[in-house]
């Protein structure tokens, strides 16, 4: 199983300060130690005429010009870029979306290892793709479109997939989403990503309950959701986002250790091949909110105990 991290310092609308490339480079080098290490980044499609206020609040201006770190950084030191293309238009725009994918492939395919087409389209939460009109079509049409564009440009090794949030029973279930996917040709899907945050929000979760929730999320995806969509067991799962906040009354290290141990235990049986933490740096340490406190370091890059935990976990894997 490969390991990785989201290297930025933004969580949705939350971001207290600009990224410091020098600090990011140093910390990621320590985590990866020269071995294959996945670095996650995001670009966003907001439609043909996006609201400037939304562009500013999401911090997405200039994403097709450059990512937070220089291009060559993503392909050196054993790093592999996991690039998410998020679909967030105010109105359905399949043609614009496919054209945007072409531009992403043209700009970034040469430094990308994994290309994720849509972000968590199974949950209708604001600022996640599941809240966007036309998201299922964006996924089912976007994946084969991206595959063709990659192949035509000579980038066949790039793997193409999509991601979903952990079991959505608390939102009434997401079976309708998977049933719609079952109607599409998903043969171009190389992997399916899982956003895994069983104890991130609400009250703290006891360790044994956290173990059970983590295993349920993995098994529900493999044995129920992917089976419903007709995606075979040979298509790997990437735990592409996972984390736990460092807030009063919570033990971030214990939570991360519990979730990682379950993923490792289930990896062979459920074909889990990538594990990425969200994220390297807090979005806003002083906020006192979960979204602000997922990092392995503070928003000023002071190390938390969780940094050393993850460094050792990757080293000893």
UniProtKB/TrEMBL annotation:
- Species for this entry: Paractinoplanes ferrugineus
Q: Which InterPro entries does the record associate with it?
A: GH (IPR017853)
Q: Could you name the domain of life of the organism this protein comes from?
A: Bacteria
**Lineage, highest ranks first:** Bacteria, Bacillati, Actinomycetota, Actinomycetes, Micromonosporales
Gene3D superfamilies xref list:
Glycosidases
Please identify the protein, giving its name as recorded: Uncharacterized protein
């Amino acid at each position: 199983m490969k390991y990785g991290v989201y290297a930025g310092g933004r969580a949705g609308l939350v971001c207290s300060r600009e990224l410091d490339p020098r600090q990011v480079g140093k910390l990621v080098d320590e985590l990866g130690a020269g071995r294959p290490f996945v670095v996650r980044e995001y670009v966003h499609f907001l439609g043909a005429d996006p609201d400037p206020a939304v562009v500013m609040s999401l911090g997405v201006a200039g994403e097709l010009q450059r990512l937070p770190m220089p291009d060559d950084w993503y392909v050196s030191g054993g790093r592999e870029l996991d690039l998410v293309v998020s679909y967030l238009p105010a109105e359905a725009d399949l043609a614009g979306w496919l054209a945007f994918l072409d531009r992403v492939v043209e700009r970034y395919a040469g430094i990308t290892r994994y290309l994720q087409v849509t972000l968590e389209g199974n949950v209708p939460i604001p600022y996640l793709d599941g809240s966007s009109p036309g998201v299922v079509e964006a996924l089912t049409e976007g994946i084969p479109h991206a595959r063709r564009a990659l192949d035509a440009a000579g980038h066949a090794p790039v793997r193409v997939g999509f991601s979903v949030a952990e079991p959505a029973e608390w939102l009434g279930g997401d079976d309708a989403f998977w049933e719609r996917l079952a109607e599409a040709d998903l043969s171009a899907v190389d992997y399916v990503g899982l956003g895994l945050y069983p104890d991130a929000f609400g009250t703290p979760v006891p360790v044994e309950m956290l173990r059970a929730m983590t295993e349920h999320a993995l098994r529900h995806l493999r044995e129920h959701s992917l089976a419903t969509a007709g995606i075979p067991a040979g298509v790997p799962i990437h735990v592409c986002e996972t984390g736990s906040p460092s807030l009063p009354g919570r033990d971030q290290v214990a939570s991360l250790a519990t979730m990682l141990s379950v993923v490792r235990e289930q990896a062979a049986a459920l074909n889990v091949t990538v594990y990425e933490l969200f994220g390297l740096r807090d979005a806003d340490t002083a906020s006192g909110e979960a979204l602000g406190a997922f990092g392995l370091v503070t928003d000023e890059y002071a190390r938390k105990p969780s940094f050393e935990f993850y460094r050792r976990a990757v080293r000893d894997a």
